[in-house]
Amino acid sequence: MNYDIMTEQDVPIIAKKYMEYYNGHEDSCWKYDKACKRIHQMVTIEDSLCLVQRDHGEITGFVIGFFKEYDDLTEYTLEEIVVFADDQNQGYGKALLQEVERRAREHGAEHLDLISVNDEHHIHFYTSFGMYQANNLKIMGKHFSP
């Protein structure tokens, strides 16, 4: 497997695959322009670390995230990890997480965080990688009405 830093030139193909995956397998309604914007924002954010995973030249997945500085540590925020449907359950997700952790550590990160879907599949995957559910945080949100 090969891992390349995602660049702005990768955005169109990654956005297309992103949209196809989420719309076809996660019941989402992504439009191409919005998917491009989402991926582009992450690639161009200061201190981003976004990777494209390829096996035999084919894109199998990607990760988007960025580093955050705190008073006592540097953290890598894993914004999103995607392994495409045909490539799941073959070890690509585990390999991709291992690679992003290796690179995050090389950049001085001491902690990795992510927000995950709260279902058995995702929780099992992330805990098998050594991650834990934070008990001291609660995600808060507010939806704006038109």
Structure notes:
This protein has 146 residues and is an alpha+beta fold. It is 36% helix and 24% strand. It contains four helices and five strands; from the N terminus they run βααβββαβα. The chain has helices at residues 11-25, 32-44, 92-106, 120-128; strands spanning 2-5, 51-55, 58-69, 74-83, 111-114. β3 and β4 form a beta hairpin.
Summary of the model, kept short:
This protein is 36% helix and 24% strand.
DSSP summary, beta strand count:
5
Order of helices and strands: EHHEEEHEH
Q: Tell me about the largest β-sheet.
A: 5 strands, mixed
Low-confidence stretches: none
Rg, rounded, reads: 15 Å
Name the strands of the widest sheet in spatial order: 1-2-3-4-5
- Beta content comes to 15-25%
Coarse shape: globular
Instruction: Give the structural class.
Output: alpha+beta
The span between the termini is: 46 Å
Instruction: Provide the residue-averaged pLDDT.
Output: 92
**Proportion in helices:** 25-40%
Number of helical segments with 4 or more residues: 4
